[in-house]
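User: Before I run my own analysis I want an independent prediction to cross-check against. Here's the chain; please return only the structure tokens and, at the end, one sentence I can use as a sanity check.
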Amino acid sequence: MRLNHYALLAATFLPAAASAQCPAGELEVTIDVLTDDYGNETYWQLVPFGNTCGQSPIFIGGNTGALNCNSGGGQTSPAGGYASNTTISTGPWCLTEGAQYNIVSIDSYGDGQATFRVYAEGGSIAEFNQAGGLHIFTFTVLEPVPIDMSVTALTTPLFNRIGMPTAFTGTVRNIGSETVTDFTLNVSLYGALSFTQDFTGLSIPSGNRYEFTVNGPWTPSVLGAAELSIWATNINGQSDGQPANDAMGAALWVNAAIPDLVPDYLALPPTMTVVADDDEDLLVPRDLAFHPDPARDELWVINKDVENSGGSTVRFFEPGQPTQTQLWQRDPNAWHFMSLPTGIAFGDNGDFSTCPGVYDANHNGGAPFTGITLWSSDPAIYAQNIFGGLGSHLDMLHVTPHSQGIAHERWNRYWVVDGYNHDVVMHDFRTDHGPGNDYHGDALIRRYAGIDIQRDPNDHIVSHCEFDKRNGWLYVVDHGNQRVVRLNTQTGTVSGPGSFGPYESYVEYSQMSGHIWETVATTGLVQPAGIAISGDHLLVSDHANGDIVVYDITEGSGFPVVGTIQTNSPGIMGIEVGPDGHLWFVNATTHQLVRIDADENVGIAHALSTPLSVFPNPANDRLFISGAAGLQPNAVVHVIDATGRIALTSSIALLRDGIDIAGLAPGAYTVSMTGRKAASVVIAR
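Assistant: Structure tokens:
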């Protein structure tokens, strides 16, 4: 490490001794620099406010031998400077109280900068961390209050579902000068305090963070928006000295419960409705997933494509409706981040993750630097060629060659089938590094070995997995052994470092032992591929014959086969249960996206003989519905406008008090309910 200390105009700016005694009107300031995987690419200066790089620097640090003020974003990585993944403490300096100063930070490659933590009199006053290139950060020299905590991140699901428990998780930061040993966390929903939890026996120094989970889960029961706010009180038995920065909020959304329509599909052979094929840019589709935001009404399909160019996605808007449209996209760096993808899964925050089917994502015959990738579904980010040489990806981890399938648990935590090592691996990206950057050091990875999953030796047919969020069981297709297994993800303990790799540094990469897993199905499968859960039914697609085999996964049932849905579609791979309970699948041989509809003479059609009625008609601010008797309590109701767009969604569990239609514009609408014929209504005011 080489540090240059420049002569300064004012004597009080000179670096002081380790225990500086500053004159009146000045405070002792120190700065910790936390480097990423490439500490050698960091160069920075501390300058008076308003100055730029090289103008009367107070301090210069980093790779001063090879970098300078013009080195930002040049995609260079010269040797020297700071070590990687290290904290370097600089200062102290005596700086004027109340004055502002700039940190000029330069990353020579341009893909992610070091973190700067600023302390005054030993207490945290600022923290900065942004993408690469050149950035100027400004802080004010103020003495921190002794007691001050702030919620800095919420990782509670943004999209939730009626009847599905939701845990409240996030991060608090101690920005006071005293070490925090205990505090109370408060959770407000719909504007009212809902939960409190005490945290004791801690030691959180100034500037440090603490990741929390509130034990009292929330089981949503009301469709629609829910406002969340979380804040800390009773910190070390005292009041917070800066209450204005305490709370963080989030706008949550609660989706309707998904009905289990499997009994209708098993009554008589259902109808296969081809929704899209290669005319809609499907090229060896392997998996599909619905976006969790119902307002977007999107179904994403992922294409295998070819190795050199990488995979691609086709996004279907209003899928299966007469107004359906689609958008094909390929990320500029898909050859690395989405090479021969086998699976796609959406998270409860609107991001999604994909897993590559290749051994080495660099395609150079070297180490298997391969693993799952995190993406944003924001149209302004995904597949846009504006983020540099690493494409638009949000994050990537590299310990699972020949990944075979992926399932979401919560926030940025995903489970993946490692087809090379025959294991199941949990990946928690935690905080993503941002579009086109490359810091992976805060990830948490845990490897569950001993299950011996065998992939297709031809690397074509997938081995997907599905996470049951009701109880934490992960169901996994073992293609090569013609079976389905499940892993209790709430069991097992860390027994040492991960057994494969790693090729980069993570906050944790562990091997697990003592985990509970068992075989669910060993019969009825020839070439098992895709997997989905509908209620207490497990559905497994068979690539060889197109069948979808249905198992009862009710605890204690013994997992019997309860029937087979015959699609007559050999080549089937990924399957998915849609928001309204309909089954969908993709076929890699015929390049098709297919929706499964129950036979019109049975199942759902039995209920269709009962008329659906709405009143009053015309309606004003509230609409009542009759004719829902006999349907499942989580059946879905849609109010559809004249253009065919879903204007409002509800469930029959909420129909007693009517549907609030005050926000809908006057006009003609159609009311559609799962299991009933649609009815027309006019809204007039």
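Sanity check: Confidence is low (pLDDT under 50) at residues 1-19, 602-609.
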